[in-house]
Amino acid sequence: MKKVMFEKTSKNVFLLNSLLFLCISSVSCSSDEGGEELPPASYNVSGKVEKGPFVSGSTITVQPMNERLQVTGEMYSTTINDDLGNFTLGSKEFQSPYAELMATGYFFNEVEGALSDGTLTLRALADLSDKQTVNVNVLTHLKYTRMRNLISSGSRFESANRQAQEELLRQFGLEKYTSKDASQFSIIAGTGESAALIAISSLLLVDRSEAALTEYLAKLSEEFGRTGTFSEAIRSQIRKDKGKLVGELADIKENIVERYSSLGIDVSVKDLVSFVDWNDNGIVGDEVMKEGEEVRLDCAEISVPNEGGTYTIQINSPVPVYLEQQIGDGDLEFVGPSDIVTEEKFVDLYDKYDPSAFRDGEINLTKSIENNTLKIVVSPLTSKREKKKSVLLYDYIGNVVATVTLTQEAGVVKIPVEDVPLLGHEGKYIVGNLADHLLSGMQSYSVLEQNYWNNKEANTVANITPEDRYVENAWERFYSANTQLLLLKRMDEGMLNVYSDFCNVLSAFWYSTLLYGWGGVPYLTDYSQLDNAMSGVPRTSERFILADMQEKLLSAVENLEEKKNESLEGADGFFFVSKDVARVLLANLYMYEGRYDEAMPLLRSVMDNGFYRLDASTNFAPSIDLESSYVSVENSTEVIFALQNERVTRATIVSPQVTPYITLSDVYLSLAECCYHAGRASEANSLVEAVAQAKSLVLAEGDVLFRIKELREHLLLYSGTYFAFLKRNGLAQDVCGIENNRLLLPIPSSEMRFNMMLTQNPGY
């Protein structure tokens, strides 16, 4: 370095001070490596101030500085002359090429997409010998204090600037953009440096007012200025800010493009997500998919059986994938194929129905990713409809990069029988009508059975013709009850689908009676079949009816509740039958086919459960007249199922009329019949004697089957089961004195006229 020598002289102090200033100036103008002294020079300083761009009228001050960043005394000022942040200082002579630029003003807030509400001050340190265009931005501002501290510690300007920039960009994972000085970065350049500037600038601004931003920048500058790093507290805050920024970047890009477009400039902005170090690993762009990249799965669609299963899928991806967003609030919105839930309209078929408790189920699964393998475990589905569900794979910031679609087969909605909702008003109204029709039909059928019982003495069977009013009423009422049941069943199937077993048991009451009395009959088990009834419905074979009823009753025996049946406790008690009712009906069907060994365990279960006991009742005649001398069916401990006319109307409840159908005496006598046919006469006699003793009846000695008949005539003639007993044991012709053709009742003439597809039973 060229030395300037000063002699001790008595010249005035002013001259000495001038010479000293020249000496300092010559030192400050030398290069970092000890080059030649730089003479004063003129610089035409211009550039941009960008946070978003500062607006017209913002002020710029420039202070020349020496190599040690000490101000040399001069100060120049100008204003931004447009809304793009441009400024021009004009040609000025500087004693050294170093200067501080400070800008204060309003700016375009790229996060909010509007002009700022307050002003902001940004600084930059520049070496004008390298460039005359100097941009002021957030990066130059954050470097400012760090550069001053490095230079005060002995670093030259160039090395301090380089070190500060490397350290700063390293804090944001953007080290690859250190080759170009931050004072040359500009939002509008459309380069990687531009995107880096926008990303950092937006990250610091997101969710902050201008005042809060000023305070935050001061804190960052001071902390970074001391160590060239950010503390863990600042890093934690930056991570939180990234979570807020992730959902804003698309809007920020659009806001910048629209702002400059309104100023007459077309600006290109790169995809900003690739310029944020989302996972804090020091590298930007390795967490998100780039254009042209894709995730490949070895299977994207899975068909799942109703019972569920376990599935593994291999993932081939250029970036790590996740099952949920790793940053941000985690409130991603994505509607998959099965995520659209439609609200079903429920009438008051059910009592106190809570949709959240019984809603049709959705696919339930667990999922995990390990070693690029997606594992999905699907649970059984409780839904009456096929369901779809999507498993989404995300990149780090929550972009959906792949989708696996599962389609699971429908199944049966399994609501525990004890949790099945009771009947609502509409349900009770339907069941009340059903009970009324069934009671009326069974009472008419009981009259027909009494005619058969009395035939030998009064020849009453001859009067049973297709025009007989009891024949017509029994037939019509049974089918009316069936129509009511099919209506209720259809409503339930469209909603919870939990009443099927109860409906099937009730259906077995009238269809078994129709089968015992008429043989093969039209068998309607679905509401849609009623649409074809107007054009006629043919007979269904006895074999098919028996098989179908037996299958449905077996299901009911398995599924229904083990409890005392309460058929006389209102509409709910009548409808929600127990296992015992299904057992007896199923046993009756087995006996009708001669399958006594299969009927026996069903009947024993009813006897052994202890819910009912034999009593002294000797007459189960219908309580048509409640003031009569008949024993009250309601008070008997034997009654398992009884029919009553408890019709629910819109305004009132009609007083009940009661007819027993299943009693414990009936179960004892049916089991005795099974034992008789199994060759266990002694056990059969014991069962018969148990019934007789409970009733204080004395039976004549004789054949067990004859004694069973005598008890049935005495106790159960009005229950609608007498004629079926006679027929299955081959006693009907002899006991009733009838011909073979009278083993079946005639189909009513009114039905024959209505249903042209029916054929009349032989002999009528």
Question: What's the arrangement of secondary structure elements?
Answer:
Blueprint: H1 13-28, E1 41-48, E2 59-65, E3 76-79, E4 86-94, E5 98-105, E6 108-109, E7 114-115, E8 120-127, H2 138-152, H3 157-171, H4 192-205, H5 210-227, H6 232-245, H7 249-262, E9 296-297, E10 301-304, E11 309-316, H8 355-358, E12 365-370, E13 373-378, E14 387-394, E15 400-408, H9 425-453, H10 455-458, H11 469-493, H12 500-518, H13 542-559, H14 570-575, H15 579-592, H16 596-608, E16 639-644, E17 658-663, H17 664-677, H18 681-694, H19 704-715, H20 722-728, H21 732-736, H22 749-754
Parallel strand pairs: 10-15
Antiparallel strand pairs: 1-4, 2-3, 2-5, 5-8, 6-7, 9-11, 11-13, 12-13, 14-15, 16-17
Structural write-up:
The chain has 764 residues and is of the alpha+beta class. It has four domains: 1-39; 44-275, no CATH class; 296-408, Immunoglobulin-like, CATH 2.60.40; 425-653 and 662-754, Serine Threonine Protein Phosphatase 5, Tetratricopeptide repeat (Alpha Horseshoe), CATH 1.25.40. 39% of the residues lie in helices and 13% in strands. It has helices at 13-28, 138-152, 157-171, 192-205, 210-227, 232-245, 249-262, 355-358, 425-453, 455-458, 469-493, 500-518, 542-559, 570-575, 579-592, 596-608, 664-677, 681-694, 704-715, 722-728, 732-736, 749-754, and strands at 41-48, 59-65, 76-79, 86-94, 98-105, 108-109, 114-115, 120-127, 296-297, 301-304, 309-316, 365-370, 373-378, 387-394, 400-408, 639-644, 658-663. It has a four-stranded antiparallel sheet with strand order 3-2-5-8. Strands 9-11-13-12 form a four-stranded antiparallel sheet, with no helix packed on it. β14 (387-394) and β15 form a beta hairpin. The radius of gyration is 48 Å and the shape is rod-shaped.
